[in-house]
Every structure is written in C-alpha cells, then in structure tokens.
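User: What would this chain look like folded?
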Amino acid sequence: MATYEIVNSDIKLGWTKVATNDELSESGISKCKRFQINGRYIALFKHQGNYYATDASCFHAGNGLMRGDIEDFADKISLVCPSHRRRIDLQTGAELIKENEGTIISRPNMQRIHLVQIFEDGIYVKLQDNKNEDGSNQTNFISDKFAFTDPLANLGRRGRGRGK
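Assistant: Here's the prediction, encoded as structure tokens.
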C-alpha cells in the first residue's frame, strides 16, 4: 500500500502556482506576468509590494492590460488600460470614471479580478467564478467575453494594445 504526503492541500486546493516569490519587480516590463489557467488569460501585477490578478484583456475592447500603468486614483489602486485609458479598480474590477465636475463614478462588474495568495514556494492565483460565497449566482463581468482570447493577438492592429 502506497502512502502519500499531503502538504497544505486544504490551503492550496483550487489555487494555481503562477510565479516565484521574486519573479516580479515593482516597475518596468517585469511588473506584470501573463499566463493561462483553464484557458483563461490572466495578468498578474505587483504594485507597492502587493499582487493583483485580473483578466488579461480589458473589458472595453479586449486589448491587453499587461502594459497598463498602476496608479492611485480616488483612494483606490487602479490599472489604466494602455489602449483607451479606462481605469479599473484592482480590488473590485469596477471601472472608475472621473466626471467633469470631479465626481468619481464606479461602474461595477466590468473587469473580473482573481484572488492572489503568497505561499512559501511562490505566488498562487485562484480564479473567481460566477458564484457568491453563499453559492448563489453572481452577475457576469464584461471582461468575461474576452477572457479566452489571447490579448497579445491584438498587438499587430493599429491602436490595439500598444499603449497609444
């Protein structure tokens, strides 16, 4: 009879290792890593020592977010899409819009945000599904329609994913 050692199975169940603990820097091209989990394209960002994971394509037009800037905006950490300058709250996935009079509007359910956990052996991501914690159905996110399309496929087209 074989015996197997189970290490942290209750903690890591459903989590996917996506990076080593020192793989991402705070700036430059290495602040982000793109990968797939179950066919879904995900972007992992590091900002001020914290990690954020989101669908890799913007909800607005499906362009890649990997070259986006991360900024503090209206007391929130936001990711700015490099193609059309849409702001995404990295905690909730809401689009943040500043109106002419300075009022900030938050449009929910735009960009799907995924869970990130740091373990001793690396950085793990757990996909957020369409279920709430109580098991009830959650509203789909707009970014879901682009989640299974490679965001780098748009790089060759004018105005798509180039940061212009």
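Confidence is low (pLDDT under 50) at residues 1-10, 156-164. If you want, I can go into more detail on any region.
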